[in-house]
């Protein structure tokens, strides 16, 4: 993931190649490159999206940059603590700007109610550790946001700190609330016979693991895959939330996990991730590349993948069916899109991360070889293919520019998590808890 909520070609191939896939509760982040989700469900037009014109390439201090950008290697450890944690440089040395600090502070403040209560799967923090920073954030104005981060949080490195980031966005596609001529691709809601199973209820070593399936007699079996669902396998057991115009665009709506439907009357309907069929996500970009479906010089970006699908005699159906994962939606209202924490996510500020390595709600700083990805972010989402330490999926909002930026995002560099003061010392045998703030 926004998402499956929280989708190039680095990022598009990566995302569509498995960089992300839907995950419950998130915008459904599947890297375009997003498991990418949502806001108002009325038919009134939305305001024009904030411009995503790329800013100047960030100049990062040599002291904090790695000497080279090696290929990203997923860690073998299963948690942040098992990967090893060490103190990073002073926050001021990272080179964050006041503007991005203000945006990150707003996102952090939004995440705090959950952060102070959440059981942190990474083992890095406890809910109480965040209380001093969250209490201060609640009353902190927009001014001097950099000072907030310097006083209450410290940069730490998980494992090698070597990071890899892709991008996702909220797509806009043609859709209708009712089936009519030209709108005949169903966008399904949650099926009545889809069962969620929390394996942690059966064995302690399976805590946090969930599966989905379908009860057949007295047995829980696999739920129908994409090809079967497209052939009518779920019948009337799933409501149709809306109808899409283009099957390829609906497929990518599923990859991202949420999106905006532009209705025939000019209105807007927002849909977000409800659940998924439990089948493994397969990125079709890699699938196509492995089969030599791209001509020499043909773009393997998300846009290139779509163009290639349209060249297929069946409209790309067989290729899309190679991804057995299928996402179900719900209509969304209120402020959004919503990430895995249940709070609105912010373009250019939210990232999807693996909660086993990054506390959801924690800020982080990226120093990447792709300048747009460098800077302060806040982990507010998850993604099915966003796994491991320092693996992130950056969220860019909605609109054509967001699609372009997310679709080309494939960045390598260094990551620092920003955790409560004293965390590194405590994890390495020092003080028993985080201090309130630096003077």
Automatic annotation (TrEMBL):
Limits of the Lytic transglycosylase MltA domain: 172-330
Signal peptide: 1-20
Comp. bias regions, Polar residues: 40-53
Lineage summary: Bacteria, Pseudomonadati, Pseudomonadota, Alphaproteobacteria, Sphingomonadales
Catalytic activities: Exolytic cleavage of the (1->4)-beta-glycosidic linkage between N-acetylmuramic acid (MurNAc) and N-acetylglucosamine (GlcNAc) residues in peptidoglycan, from either the reducing or the non-reducing ends of the peptidoglycan chains, with concomitant formation of a 1,6-anhydrobond in the MurNAc residue
Region (Disordered): 37-59
Documented EC number(s): 4.2.2.n1
Pfam families on file: 3D (PF06725), MltA (PF03562)
InterPro entries found in the cross-reference section: 3D_dom (IPR010611), MltA (IPR026044), MltA_B (IPR005300), RlpA-like_sf (IPR036908)
Matches recorded under CDD domains: mlta_B, mltA_like_LT_A
Protein's name in the database: peptidoglycan lytic exotransglycosylase
Keywords carried by this UniProt record: Cell wall biogenesis/degradation, Lyase, Signal
PROSITE patterns cross-referenced by the UniProt entry: PROKAR_LIPOPROTEIN
């Amino acid at each position: 993931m926004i998402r499956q909520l929280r989708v190039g070609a680095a990022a598009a191939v990566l995302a569509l190649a498995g960089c992300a896939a839907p995950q419950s509760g998130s915008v459904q982040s599947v890297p375009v490159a997003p498991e990418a989700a949502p806001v108002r469900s009325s038919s009134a037009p939305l305001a024009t999206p904030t411009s995503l014109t790329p800013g100047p390439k960030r100049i990062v201090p040599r002291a904090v940059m790695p000497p080279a950008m090696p290929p990203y290697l997923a860690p073998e450890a299963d948690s942040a603590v098992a990967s090893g944690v060490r103190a990073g440089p002073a926050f001021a040395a990272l080179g964050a700007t006041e503007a991005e600090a203000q945006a990150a502070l707003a996102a952090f403040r939004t995440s705090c109610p959950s952060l102070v209560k959440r059981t942190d799967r990474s083992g890095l923090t406890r809910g109480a550790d965040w209380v001093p920073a969250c209490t201060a954030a609640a009353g902190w104005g927009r001014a001097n946001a950099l000072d907030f981060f310097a006083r209450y949080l410290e940069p730490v490195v998980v494992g090698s700190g070597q990071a890899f980031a892709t991008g996702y966005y909220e797509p806009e596609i043609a859709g209708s609330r009712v089936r009519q001529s030209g709108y005949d691709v169903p966008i399904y809601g949650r099926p009545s016979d889809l069962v969620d199973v929390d394996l942690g209820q059966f064995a302690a070593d399976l805590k946090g693991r969930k599966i989905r399936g379908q009860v057949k007699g007295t047995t829980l079996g696999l739920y129908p895959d994409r090809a079967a669902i497209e052939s009518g396998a779920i019948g009337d057991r799933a409501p149709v939330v809306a109808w899409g115009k283009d099957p390829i665009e609906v497929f990518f709506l599923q990859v991202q996990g949420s999106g905006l439907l532009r209705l025939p009357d000019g209105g807007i309907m927002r849909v977000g991730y409800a659940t998924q069929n439990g089948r493994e996500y397969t990125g079709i970009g890699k699938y196509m590349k492995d089969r030599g479906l791209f001509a020499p010089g043909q773009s393997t970006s998300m846009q290139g993948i779509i163009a290639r699908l349209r060249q297929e005699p069946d409209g790309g159906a067989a290729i899309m069916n190679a991804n057995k994962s299928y996402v179900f939606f719900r209509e969304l209202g209120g402020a959004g899109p919503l990430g895995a924490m249940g709070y609105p996510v912010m373009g250019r500020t939210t990232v999807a991360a693996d909660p086993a390595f990054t506390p959801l709600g924690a800020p982080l700083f990226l120093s990447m070889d792709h300048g747009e990805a460098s800077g302060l972010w806040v982990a507010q989402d998850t993604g099915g293919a966003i796994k491991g330490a320092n693996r992130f999926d950056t969220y860019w909002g909605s609109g054509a520019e967001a699609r372009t930026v997310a679709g080309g995002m494939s960045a390598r560099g260094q990551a620092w998590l920003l955790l409560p003061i004293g965390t590194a010392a405590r994890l390495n045998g020092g003080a028993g808890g985080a201090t309130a703030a630096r003077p």
